[in-house]
Specification:
The complex is a heterodimer of chains A (about 110) and B (about 110).
Chain A lengths: L4 E3 L2 E4 L5 E6 L6 E7 L6 E7 L2 E5 L7 E4 L6 E5 L8 E8 L8 E2 L3 E5 L1
Parallel strand pairs in A: 2-11
Antiparallel strand pairs in A: 1-3, 3-8, 4-5, 4-9, 5-6, 7-8, 9-10, 9-11
Chain B lengths: L3 E4 L2 E5 L4 E7 L5 E7 L5 E7 L2 E5 L2 E6 L4 E6 L8 E9 L2 E6 L3 E6 L1
Parallel strand pairs in B: 2-11
Antiparallel strand pairs in B: 1-3, 3-8, 4-5, 4-9, 6-7, 7-8, 9-10, 9-11
The chains are: A mainly beta (about 110), B mainly beta (about 110).
């Protein structure tokens, strides 16, 4: 069964460093999402992406964040200058057609900023 | 106030018991989703529903649109059902999921 994959599974970085989290959505899916979950808290929406552009972003998704689909398969989340509070589990998800569809989640990347 | 509220926050039960987890929401929705988060952190979609009831194996999800309420039931619970169960909603014209805080379920053998 097709699945969403994410790399790396864990990343430790120093405050102020740039990180790139990578996702490979399911191949025929058109809508892509990033969510994050700070330890002990609920999952929060970061950004949605469709047709090579951001369709919606949350207030968390400030200028330090960017997303890109550099080729036909990868979907990346970049954090330019990490802060301690960026430590969280980051999930990528995808759907075939958008709303009213099941979202398929990747296994997550656990980011720790020291 | 959270748009999606779940109860209880934590639930411990004996193997074999019938489990009910509740979700209430305060906004108009296009669909309600039930998801399962395993101890390792991975999230799996269990159900998406916009009306009525769905069943998959021992899991049943119901929704009452008028009352803005949904329930997830597990029959003949088993220790492998131990996980965090999360309710989330999508709104019309908007694909993002808005999540509840989750219910941590522990089934004791």
């Amino acid at each position: 069964e097709p699945e969403v994959t994410q790399t790396p599974s864990h990343q430790v970085t120093q405050m102020g460093q740039e990180v790139i989290l990578r996702c490979v959505p399911i191949s025929n899916h058109l809508y892509f999402y990033w969510y994050r979950q700070i330890l002990g808290q609920k999952v929060e929406f970061l950004v949605s992406f469709y047709n090579n552009e951001i369709s919606e972003k949350s207030e968390i998704f400030d200028d330090q964040f960017s997303v890109e689909r550099p080729d036909g398969s990868n979907f990346t989340l970049k954090i330019r200058s990490t802060k301690l509070e960026d430590s969280a589990m980051y999930f990528c998800a995808s759907t075939r057609q958008g709303s009213q569809e099941t979202q398929y989640f990747g296994p997550g990347t656990r980011l720790l900023v020291l | 106030k959270n748009e999606v509220e779940q109860s209880p926050q934590n639930l411990t039960a004996q193997e074999g018991e019938f489990i009910t987890i509740n979700c209430s929401y305060s906004v108009g929705i296009s669909a309600l989703h039930w998801l399962q988060q395993h101890p390792g952190g991975g999230i799996v979609s269990l159900f998406m529903l916009s009306s009525g009831k769905k069943k998959h194996g021992r899991l049943i999800a119901t929704i009452n649109i008028q009352e803005k309420h949904s329930s997830l039931h597990i029959t003949a619970s088993h220790p492998r059902d131990s996980a965090v169960y999360i309710c989330a909603v999508t709104r019309f014209g908007n694909e993002k999921l808005t999540f509840g805080t989750g219910t941590r379920l522990t089934i004791i053998p």
